[in-house]
Amino acid sequence: MANPVLTYLDPAAVLLDLEAKSNGDVIRALGERLRQLGCVRESYVGAVLAREATLPTGLPLGGDNNIAVPHTDPEHVIRPALALGVLKAPVTFSNMENPDEKLPVRVVILMALNDKDRQIEMLQKIAETTQSPEALAALRRAKTFEDVCAAFA
Amino acid sequence: MAREKIILVACGTGIATSTVVATAIEEEMKNRGIPVSIRQCKATEVPGMVDDVDLVVSTTPVPQGLSKPVITTLAFLTGMGKADVLDRIEGYLRD
């Protein structure tokens, strides 16, 4: 069976060795790729940025393992997709559970979702990945799309 | 047989992290022999949906002063402290 993450992850939406100064830079860079692929509407990036400011998506996994999973409401999504950014140097995201806490993040998975019941396997696979320090380390080391596929396998 | 308990699972958009949490709770409570029904919503919608549920589980802060117990946790995404959170959920539902 096809890997539920890779089904939604186009190689053109994977940015490795990404240089960014802020979480907004990362969201704009990844969101622009999803827009070029025709997965999201013009309104998507602005909606993700607004949501991140009030309802942040950083996950505290400890040290280098912190990740963020920005996303927004379904009306900005044309078809479901993921984008992945692996940063050269961390940017700051706020902790989802405790927005006052700032987390340095090097791996960002931008999600464009429109039907939770149909995307549940992909969401579960991402949750499985976030709970695996080995998979997260493999993502940070990834140099090619094949490396990314192996990390999510 | 005990009445099926209702858990309201909330997150920022009500679509992504709450789906992961809802699935994990449903599966684990079934394993523990506790029938549950799950509803999902945005954190901001919790006050309007809390009246007929038994417990609220959220991945993001919810408004204060709710009439039902609230567990705020990222354990189903981080894996850290998951067993402990499941025990706490079970504790609220066993009453």
UniProtKB/TrEMBL annotation, chain A:
<dbReference type="InterPro" id="IPR002178">
    <property type="entry name" value="PTS_EIIA_type-2_dom"/>
</dbReference>
<keyword id="KW-0813">Transport</keyword>
<dbReference type="InterPro" id="IPR051541">
    <property type="entry name" value="PTS_SugarTrans_NitroReg"/>
</dbReference>
<keyword id="KW-0762">Sugar transport</keyword>
<dbReference type="Pfam" id="PF00359">
    <property type="entry name" value="PTS_EIIA_2"/>
</dbReference>
<protein>
    <submittedName>
        <fullName>PTS sugar transporter subunit IIA</fullName>
    </submittedName>
</protein>
<feature type="domain" description="PTS EIIA type-2">
    <location>
        <begin position="7"/>
        <end position="153"/>
    </location>
</feature>
<dbReference type="InterPro" id="IPR016152">
    <property type="entry name" value="PTrfase/Anion_transptr"/>
</dbReference>
TrEMBL record, chain B:
<dbReference type="InterPro" id="IPR013011">
    <property type="entry name" value="PTS_EIIB_2"/>
</dbReference>
<dbReference type="InterPro" id="IPR003501">
    <property type="entry name" value="PTS_EIIB_2/3"/>
</dbReference>
<keyword id="KW-0808">Transferase</keyword>
<dbReference type="GO" id="GO:0009401">
    <property type="term" value="P:phosphoenolpyruvate-dependent sugar phosphotransferase system"/>
</dbReference>
<protein>
    <submittedName>
        <fullName>PTS galactitol transporter subunit IIB</fullName>
    </submittedName>
</protein>
<dbReference type="InterPro" id="IPR036095">
    <property type="entry name" value="PTS_EIIB-like_sf"/>
</dbReference>
<feature type="domain" description="PTS EIIB type-2">
    <location>
        <begin position="5"/>
        <end position="95"/>
    </location>
</feature>
<dbReference type="GO" id="GO:0008982">
    <property type="term" value="F:protein-N(PI)-phosphohistidine-sugar phosphotransferase activity"/>
</dbReference>
<keyword id="KW-0598">Phosphotransferase system</keyword>
<dbReference type="Pfam" id="PF02302">
    <property type="entry name" value="PTS_IIB"/>
</dbReference>
